[in-house]
Amino acid sequence: MTIQPETILQQSLDKQRIVITGSRGRTTLTALLIHVLNYYKRPFDYVISAAVHGLSASSRLSDAPIIIIESEEQNMELYKHHIGLISNIIWTASDEFTAEEDYVKLFDKFADSSPKAGLLFYCENDPIALLVGSKPRPDVLSIGYKIHPHTSEAGRHFLISGKDKIPVNIYGSVNFQNISGAKELLKRIGITSEQFYQAISSFPL
């Protein structure tokens, strides 16, 4: 059963709300966050739109101090985020979004609704997300991220961090962008880079 945004907001008013959105990749990015937090047994709630390995339900609402919400474009502003992340903005003509300008405006409104002392992450590899995310907003810290350095050898895939190579089970440019976004966001809620790399190796394909 889908939980309405208004219900989620009412049940998470005293939580730190983290909203992940974008035209594609947002489910994987949310799953990366969930995997790392689960790895370290950090308490959190979540709302996600698709099945994720290791989760028996698409949502959890408890007394945890934070909630991670994967949001479609239409609803992202309704959650009144403290931390927002825009993975990318790719318009496709549809009955709902007939003009690219109107579609982009939704993300601009989401970014503009970031609160004072709020955080806004955005993928710098996506030109429209870069345009929206890098726009100056008073008292909001905007943080861009780029595709994570990586390499492949004999059919295996690795993240590159300095002289280290960290094996991972996922690949593709969008996923390497998602890894970077998850790493940067988690850093702001207490997961160090070293902890992130340790946990990410076990993220399932």
Give an overview in words.
The chain is an alpha/beta fold. It has helices spanning 5-10, 26-39, 100-112, 127-133, 173-187, 193-200, and strands at residues 16-21, 45-47, 59-60, 66-70, 83-86, 119-123, 141-145, 150-153, 156-161, 164-168. The chain has a single domain (5-200), classed as 3-Layer(aba) Sandwich (UDP-N-acetylmuramoyl-L-alanine:D-glutamate ligase), CATH 3.40.1190. It is 31% helix and 22% strand. The protein has a seven-stranded mixed sheet, sandwiched between helices. The protein has a three-stranded antiparallel sheet with strand order 8-9-10, with helices on one face. Strand 9 and strand 10 (164-168) form a beta hairpin. Helix 2 packs across helix 5 (173-187) and helix 3 packs parallel to helix 4 (127-133). The longest helix is centred in the last third of the chain and has 15 residues, at 173-187. The protein is globular and about 45 Å long.
Main structural class: alpha/beta
CATH topology type: UDP-N-acetylmuramoyl-L-alanine:D-glutamate ligase
Number of strands: 10
CATH superfamily: Mur-like, catalytic domain
Shape: globular
What is the number of helical segments per DSSP (H or I, 4+ residues)? 6
Strand order of the largest sheet: 3-2-4-1-5-6-7
Radius of gyration: 16 Å
What portion of residues is helical?
25-40%
Tell me, rounded to a whole number, the average pLDDT: 94
Terminal residue distance: 26 Å
**CATH architecture field:** 3-Layer(aba) Sandwich
CATH class membership? Alpha Beta
Element string (H = helix, E = strand) = HEHEEEEHEHEEEEHH
